């Protein structure tokens, strides 16, 4: 059994800070759900890339930061269920969006606390 087995973590964000802060959680056994906006994480556009061909599925930076994570896009039905079902929401939320942007997206603390009073 690994240290974080059975712990769910929801990750929202772009580029490095949220992904790096959460990188080891999956390695330690947590179920990490990385939720990307429809256009994908901006890290997908950063290299290095094999043969220097830009490919969002082959970004060395993105792949390094997101191993052992499940991926989802927050417009999908599955993600909406995660945002409205306390059992799937996760124990922790790691993000790097400014508070005003989180509120505008409807993913701020009061919204999550109403869904999952245990937060």
Could you please describe the fold and organization of this structure?
The chain contains six helices and four strands, in the order βαβαβααβαα. With 119 residues, the chain is α/β, with parallel strands linked by helices. A four-stranded parallel β-sheet has the order 3-2-1-4, covered by helices on one side. Helix 1 (17-27) links the parallel strand 1 and strand 2.
In terms of topology, how is this protein built?
Layout: E1 8-12, H1 17-27, E2 31-36, H2 60-65, E3 70-73, H3 77-84, H4 86-89, E4 92-95, H5 99-104, H6 109-115
Parallel strand pairs: 1-2, 1-4, 2-3
Q: In whole angstroms, how far apart are the ends?
A: 25 Å
Indicate the mean pLDDT. Answer: 82
- Tell me how many strands there are: 4
Helical residue percent? 25-40%
| Biggest sheet layout | 4 strands, parallel
Parts with pLDDT < 50 across at least 5 consecutive residues: none
- Measured by DSSP, the beta-strand proportion falls in 15-25%
């Amino acid at each position: 059994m690994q240290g974080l087995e059975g712990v769910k973590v929801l990750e929202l964000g772009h580029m490095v800070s949220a992904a790096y802060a959460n990188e080891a959680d999956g390695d330690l056994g947590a179920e990490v759900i990385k939720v990307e906006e429809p256009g994908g994480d901006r890290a997908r556009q950063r290299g290095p890339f094999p043969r220097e061909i830009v490919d969002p599925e082959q970004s060395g930076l993105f792949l390094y930061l997101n191993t052992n994570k499940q991926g989802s896009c927050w417009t999908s039905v599955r993600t909406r269920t995660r945002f409205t079902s306390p059992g799937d929401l996760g124990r922790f939320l790691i993000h790097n969006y400014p508070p005003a942007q989180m509120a505008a997206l409807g993913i701020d603390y009061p919204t999550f606390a109403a869904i999952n009073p245990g937060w």
